[in-house]
Design brief:
The protein is an alpha/beta fold. It has 16 helices and 19 strands. It has three domains: 190 residues, FAD/NAD(P)-binding domain (3-Layer(bba) Sandwich), CATH 3.50.50; 115 residues, no CATH class; 130 residues. Strand 11 and strand 12 form a beta hairpin.
């Protein structure tokens, strides 16, 4: 059976590896000159940057693929970080959260006055919630009737009252925690799938299990090592990879996939096709004659981002691998992004510095700063002006909080804004994760991993079920394997 994979993001590559293991003849088509989708790298002078995702959890999902192919696990090495994140507040207070439930609880008690037992109980419940929903909603399809006969469903349903489906993430966090600063820490996890904590259901608090109970990991060689490893596994599996070859149409005959048209070939026959491309653009650009599932595609889009890549010619001991500089008015920030479609004057700033661990990512005297703010999707804003204003605001804020003249320390620089996300990665309007999760039914409105109307068509990646982030994209591949082999 011949399989065509559109896109080499983690979801597409993981699907390719899993289907090749089933004995299928797999070909991957990638429009860019590199594999990995958003997980790629940028080199500026003596500095190396990971361009896209920066938080890595559940590395065992990569280990699973390595084992599946029969490779030695030494080809992919990583370490768990001792800290989950360092937080900087507008009033000057700084809080460094260590990884681990007990350690996190003790720190929040000491620094922010929380009851450590309350924090531990909350994080314990998030772990139970995560483990309950994982085999039902995350590693399995929601959209097949047979799934609801899954032996894990009863246990998941028993915990329904504990998921917070009818409360927002923020309302739950305000009820649990005493200090607004603690609430802000937990609220920010909604941004991990491009949503607002003031709109998204409390279910998303399960992200805190991965972030705080287990803590983030970092691959040796940076996040790009994930993409490099998947490519190695694909080549080991005899998967053909066509770079710089854009798929232009999925060919359908009598409601069945029969092949692909690419920028280099009018017709390549396939029995199955998996799109790792943004699901909105899959329909708009590759399936022009197929009715769109409007209920899935017309949901509110996730946020986008503006990222500055700065080579900084100084070391900052007060910074770690992951750093957050909170805004004064968090709720206003999300209102601007989702309702007004603009950036706040006062944005929360994320600074990611891999050279804290990977010394070769920056010269001995400096650091590689990945500086990001959440942004609205592209609806035609004057991005040249927005980017310049944002740059000025970030430099001013960070200079004040770090007591330096940051503009004088920037040795190398590049920037990415929503237009680039749309052009390079084909994210609809620059959205990172497709649909946002800003309503209680959002999980059910994500597009299934298969077409309900076209035989042989499947969907992988962060814009479809089960959702945004590296672990969920890898799980979309696991789901497709189950669907194809069942």
């Amino acid at each position: 059976m011949k399989v065509g994979i559109i896109g080499s993001g983690v979801g597409g590559m993981a699907t390719a590896i899993r289907l090749a293991k089933l004995g299928m003849d797999v070909t991957v088509f990638e429009a860019n000159s590199f594999t990995g989708g958003k997980i790629n790298e940028l080199k500026l002078g003596h500095y190396r940057f990971d361009r896209g995702p920066s938080v890595f959890t559940e590395p065992e999902l990569i280990d699973e693929l390595i084992e599946l192919v029969g490779e030695d696990k030494s080809i992919f090495k990583y370490q768990y970080l001792a800290e989950s994140c360092r937080y900087f507040y507008p009033d000057g207070q700084q809080v460094t959260l260590p990884s681990g439930r007990k350690e996190t609880a003790q720190t929040l008690e000491k620094e922010l006055g929380e009851n450590s037992k309350t924090v531990e109980e909350f994080l314990g419940n998030m772990e139970k919630n995560y483990k309950a929903v994982y085999p039902v909603f995350i590693s399995a399809s929601l959209h097949r009737t047979s799934q609801w006969l899954n032996k894990y469903v009863p246990a998941a349903l028993l915990r329904l009252p504990k998921y917070g489906l009818f409360d927002t993430m923020n309302s739950i966090n305000e009820r649990i925690f005493k200090n607004p600063k603690t609430v802000q820490i937990f609220n920010r996890l909604a941004t991990y799938n491009g949503s607002s904590p003031y709109l998204t259901p409390g279910m998303l608090n399960i992200i805190s299990h991965l972030e705080m109970n287990r803590g983030p990991a970092l691959p040796f060689g940076g996040m790009v090592s994930i993409s490099k490893t998947l490519r190695t596994l694909a080549e080991k599996s005899n998967i053909k990879i066509h770079l710089s070859e854009r798929v232009e149409e999925i060919i359908i005959r009598e409601k069945k996939v029969v092949g692909l048209r690419t920028s280099k070939s009018d017709f390549i026959p396939f029995d199955l096709v998996v799109s790792n491309m943004d699901v909105h653009y899959t329909y708009e650009r590759l399936l022009p004659n197929v009715p769109q599932p409007k209920e899935n595609l017309n949901q509110e889009k996730s946020s986008s981002a503006i990222v500055f890549y700065w080579g900084i010619k100084q070391k900052f001991n007060e910074l770690g691998v992951h750093n957050i500089f909170f805004s004064k008015n968090y709720s206003s920030e999300f209102e601007n992004i989702f309702q007004e479609k603009k950036l706040s004057d006062d944005c929360t700033i994320y600074v990611h510095i891999t050279s804290k661990v990977e010394k070769s990512d920056a010269p001995e005297y400096g650091e590689n700063w990945f500086v990001m703010v959440n942004a609205p999707i592209n609806i035609g804003q004057d991005w040249e002006t927005v980017v310049q204003q944002t740059r000025n605001a970030l430099i001013k804020r960070l200079s004040e909080q770090l007591n330096c003249s940051l503009s004088e320390l920037i040795e190398e620089e590049a920037v990415m804004d929503p237009r680039d996300l749309e052009q390079m990665y084909f994210g609809k309007q620059g959205s990172i994760y497709g649909n946002a999760s800003n309503n209680r039914m959002a999980a059910f409105y994500r597009h299934p991993n298969f077409s309900k109307t076209i035989k042989g068509l499947y969907f992988a990646g962060v814009t479809v079920h089960p959702g945004g982030g590296i672990p969920l994209a890898l799980n979309s591949a696991r789901i497709i394997e189950k669907l194809v082999s069942s």
